[in-house]
Amino acid sequence: MSTTATTVSSRQRLLDAALSEFRTRGYAATTVDDLCRAAGVSKGAFFHHFASKEALALAAVEYWNTYTGQLFAQSSYHALPDPRDRVLAYIDLRGQLLRGELAQFTCLLGTLVQETYESHPALRAACRAGIEGHADTLVRDIAEAKKKYAPKATWSPESVALYTQVALQGAFVLAKAQDGLDVAADAVAHLHRYIELLLPASTGSRPTPKPRRTPQ
User: How far is Cα 171 from Cα 98, in angstroms, rounded to an integer?
Assistant: First the structure.
């Protein structure tokens, strides 16, 4: 294996370890040793790529944003002709992603910012940019749906887009508190209902998804 391939591989393993360890243990409780052990690399390899744990966390946030951004950008709901359907299908997709262990579906950004909002301003800023950036991807669909279904409403598409992230992050917190998926699935179903109320279909409300535990 070439030196370049080894370098890329060890850096990638550290990024993957950061996503898993930070979401499982939390930022403060995760040590450089934990990250090296999870990645299967030496401390020398760690500090070859990252000057500190915070530097790795910042890179992990960027990596997370790229990965999740591609996931949602490539999702089939974008092809739906009706903007209301696209917004609701996005929420349904978030419900479908609730599977596996808590650390596999909870958000890296939400986990990090809860711990580091005061102690690590650079991490707080990166997490804020990631969460708000994802919300921004919903604004166009929500604006089109508002124009079609609720043109006289006083709320803004930007505020609703950000609220979807508030509801989802809260769902993750409750899932951690109750150590289970059911409460998160129920919260996502309530979010679906709320958006239906904000954007009442002229032909009547369509069936609301029933909260259910996603099979692991």
Answer: 10
